[in-house]
Amino acid sequence: MGDRWYSEAVVYCLDIDTFADSDGDGVGDIRGLMSRLDYLARLGVTCLWLHPIHPSPNRDDGYDVTDFYNVDPRFGTLGDFAELLHQAQNRGIRVIIDLVVNHTSDEHPWFQSARSSPDSPYRDWYLWSDQEPADRHQGMVFPGEQNETWTYDRTAKAWFYHRFYKFQPDLNVSNPQVRAEIKKIMSFWLQLGVSGFRMDAVPFIIELTEPGNPKSPKDFEFITELRQHVQWRRGDAVLLAEANVEPDELPTFFGDGSGSGNRIHMLFDFMLNGRLVLALARHDPEPLIEALRDTPKLPVGGQWATFLRNHDEIDLSRLTTEQRNQVYAEFGPDENMRIYDRGIRRRLAPMLGNDRRRIELAYALQFSMRGTPVLRYGEEIGMGEDLSLPGREAIRTPMQWSYATNAGFSTADPEKLVRPVIDKGEFSYQQVNVTAQTSDTKSLFAWFERMIRTLREAPEIGSGSTTHIDVSMPAGVLAHRADGPTGTMVFVHNLGTDDVEVDLSSLEPEADMPMDVLSDRGYGELGKLGAVKLAGYGYRWIRLCRGSAW
Ligand code: GLC
To answer: Which residue intervals define the domain Glycosyl hydrolase family 13 catalytic in the entry (predicted)?
Structure first.
């Protein structure tokens, strides 16, 4: 394993409230999650990313916090959380938590105090304007659900700023007290034993918002400060950030340009996400070839976090209108499957018509791309969505553990569940559940288990460098390679439906007994690299050679 744990991690994200309910109140909890750690260890994940765990009125699924120094009582106690960290650590699993400090809930005592009087010590912790700001109707993140970013507060007799919903007032990071408090929050959780943070909405955290200026300046130095602080408190802690910005802005989030990665360690690769989905929709590797070619050079220690699905919509806003329409036509044909004029609120299995070959292909592609893979709970068994639920809730249904009532998620009365389980159609828990799949060596779960194990023997993917193999390929086929001190892995993925033969003979001089380590079927001896067979939607991960580090 390389020097930095996060480079070769497999991250699994989940929301405690929909994972496993231990006390039968209908809401998942920490003890429930603890009882499923063995399952996660078996799957092979090495790091959990927990969605917000703090007390919250839950109007944005926990992304509206009322107390940064506690866990939501629905989930258990701080004691339970410390126990979870211990139990996870015993299994070699690290835990990172969502850090949502761009804003608080409007019910947070800081905001309650701030709005109550101009003399409140917390008044300047938020952003106010006495006049109606000219850009009041600009910069909304949730079009259709939000129509302004400045809202008049009658108690405060002033306008306050909120990049997201109006119940999420933005904190004022130009206030040194706010900065100090954010550092204190991070220290608290590091001290308790988390391995880092998934930092929510980073481009907005560093915005020095000025009323009337929709292009307010950003203070990148604040990220440098946070990084220094975190690294001093815990040397191996990691920052994984959400920064869905233009590609040319990305490097600034990793470092200050001096060549050292002195800001965020890992950024979600939103660019790759959109292109992966486009490539799948078109049966064409071109968008991925572009992604590999256009990847900005990262400073030492900088790393991408790859994903296919997360807890939000698939954001297609960085595709052209034509590309977006193509993806919609393939994967979100009904208006009800789309959201915010830019995305799709579906899980991957239903998007791919529950076609096992395509699901494997898609995840084999993601996990072979440069970076650290992030997997969302339930994807490993091919869960579906519930489009009758509002907005992003469609993809936030309870984990499907078994054939038992409520999918084995909870023993509560079904009406009391935090969200209904999927109990109809081909994605119902009677068809898709952990119990069935963990006892079936041919299940999607078993495939994920094998694929993740294979990754353990291919550290080049996480720690090495990945490039497109630019030789002539049959239509639909992507060939890429990952090189590192441990050797070279070569990957061929067929996004098309036709069986093909791939010519990789240009790699012969480097090959040292090449062999398949993962493939969609038994292809027999690999033999000559000049005629590598590949079925429609097939893939082969080939170890080309081992390096001196073995
Ligand atoms: C991030 C989260 C999203 C949340 C928003 C506001 O984008 O991923 O789920 O609604 O921040 O905190």
So the answer is: 13-416
Q: Whole-structure pTM over 0.85, yes or no?
A: yes
How many CB atoms are closer than 10 A to CB 252?
A: 17
Residues 6+ apart with CB under 8 A from 182: 101, 171, 173, 226
pLDDT digits (tens, 9 = 90+) for 371-384: 999 999 999 999 99
Identify which of 358, 361, 351 has the alpha carbon closest to the alpha carbon of residue 383. 351
CA dist list (Å): 453 to 1, 44, 45, 318, 517:
14, 7, 10, 33, 10
164 lines ligand 1 (CB under 6 A): yes
Ligand 1 mean position to 324 CA, how many Å? Answer: 22
Question: What band does 550 get if pLDDT is binned at 50, 70 and 90?
Answer: low
Which of 99, 164, 244 most suits a substitution to test ligand 1, by most atoms within 8 Å of the C-beta? Answer: 164
Nearest CA to ligand 1 atom 7: 201
DSSP 442-470: TSHHHHHHHHHHHHHT-THHHHSEEEE--
Q: Is the pLDDT at 38 greater than 70, yes or no?
A: yes
